[in-house]
Amino acid sequence: MTPVSLELLPRSTVLTPGPGRKRSAEELKAIAEEAARRFDDRGLYGNHDEIDPNEVLAWAGETFGDALAVACSMANTVVPEMTAPHAPGVDVLFLDTGYHFSETVGVRDALAATPGLNVVDVRSPATREEHEAVLGAKPYETDPELCCRLRKVEPLDAALSGYEAWITGLRRVDTDHRAGAGIVEWDAKHGMIKINPLVAWTLERVHKYAEEHGCLLNPLLDDGYPSIGCEPCTHRVEAGADPRSGRWAGSSKTECGIHL
């Protein structure tokens, strides 16, 4: 663990780009519970049918308007591009950690030029250089949990506080932790609604959709990186291996903390 005081780091409040919440947590939770029943594909409420993501996104755009945000890692742009027709001008939150591959930043820049989307860079109040001055030159190696918390989790938590619902690209097949995820959930951690329109899809289905609809795919996907995070913590994997085995390779870490 990092033997330093985090008080040495800038910890100013990150201003949310969102419009703020008009509904109470109780109201939002009731909306989440009703939507979970409506968009049930796991048989929890008797329905085992596949749910069309566009139906979910149309509901989300109508229900939340500008209080809706999309989180995108820029491995692909399927979710924001699928959302755009249902929520024109929707904010797309990109966690700019300072450690991304140049290819990832390139996808971010290309998406920012797409009509109907507003890409918002979410950053820690401390720069990469400020973090390394306090935590050491390679904080992602000495304390990856702390690095993820400071560069990803805390900045996103602050950014999401101004929205009522957020859309993710989370999928059940990614990790054991995500296996029980619903299409619409109550996000108790953030006190808001979490929407996972592609939660039942495989990675192959996402990529097929991207190719058929002209969505952007990160070039690293064809270079041995089926799951893409920060450059120092992402490694190539052998063909046929677990797509996420290249994330934090050699450790038991499987999540950055955003979806925990």
Automatic annotation (TrEMBL):
This is Adenosine 5'-phosphosulfate reductase. [4Fe-4S] cluster binds at C147, C148, C230, C233. The gene is cysH. Keywords: Cytoplasm, Iron, Iron-sulfur, Metal-binding, Oxidoreductase. Belongs to the PAPS reductase family. CysH subfamily. The keyword Cytoplasm applies. Catalyzes the formation of sulfite from adenosine 5'-phosphosulfate (APS) using thioredoxin as an electron donor. Its EC number is 1.8.4.10. Pfam families: PAPS_reduct (PF01507). Binds 1 [4Fe-4S] cluster per subunit.
